[in-house]
User: Which sequence fits this backbone?
């Protein structure tokens, strides 16, 4: 009798089969009948393990996110957090161009609150946090994360939708540099880089502060957010 766990269990075979069909022929090819035949299982097994086709597609998206995150987190941070953001952006766009059907599923067809998508945002937020700690963030961290996500995902989906021979080879680089210019400052040459980078840097370091009460931290966090939001939004 087959077990459901393990590398060769039916769940893993079903997800692998669905992923192959997705990458070969797109999401429309991932039917219950086609997946059950490719995985060597009966259709009721798919319904029992995943509920329905959307549940199966969610599992495939989660698998894609896990593989992507394993690649991103395997890279050690460098000395320049802005350069790390550039490299992460290029890795993200490269994923989309190498696996367009999977990318569309991961970023255009999953609903909000997906655990895998949340994990991907957390990795991006860590990149942004390191930029803030270095005193080089000119906008609030949440806004920076949102801008990188919106422009990065939109750029990648635009490239995927454009025939390969018609793609602008500089589109991703231009979009990347525009976002970086909007959210970061140059490495400060003087001890005082200005109020916004200083406030953002202190805001990023608050989790390490243990000399203030929770109420005091809350007030300080609000003040710092107001500084970065008021002066960083221009």
Assistant:
């Amino acid at each position: 009798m087959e077990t459901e766990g393990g590398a060769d269990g039916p769940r893993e075979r079903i997800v692998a089969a669905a992923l192959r069909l997705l990458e070969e022929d797109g999401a429309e090819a991932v039917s219950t009948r086609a997946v059950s035949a490719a995985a060597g299982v009966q259709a009721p097994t798919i319904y029992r393990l995943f509920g329905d086709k959307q549940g199966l597609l969610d599992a495939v998206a989660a698998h894609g996110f896990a593989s992507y995150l394993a690649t991103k987190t395997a890279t050690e941070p460098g000395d320049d957090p802005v350069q790390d953001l550039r490299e992460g952006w290029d890795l993200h766009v490269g994923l989309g161009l190498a696996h367009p059907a999977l990318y569309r599923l991961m970023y255009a067809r999953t609903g909000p609150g997906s655990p895998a998508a949340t994990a991907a945002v957390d990795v991006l937020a860590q990149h942004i946090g390191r930029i803030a700690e270095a005193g080089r963030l000119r906008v609030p961290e949440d806004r920076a994360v949102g801008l990188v996500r919106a422009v990065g995902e939109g750029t990648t989906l635009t490239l995927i939708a454009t025939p390969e021979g018609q793609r602008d080879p500089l589109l991703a680089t231009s979009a990347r540099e525009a976002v970086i210019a909007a959210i970061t400052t140059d490495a400060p040459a003087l001890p005082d880089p200005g109020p916004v980078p200083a406030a953002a840097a202190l805001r990023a370091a608050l989790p390490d502060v243990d000399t203030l009460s929770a109420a005091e931290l809350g007030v300080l966090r609000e003040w710092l957010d107001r500084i970065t939001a008021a002066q960083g939004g221009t």
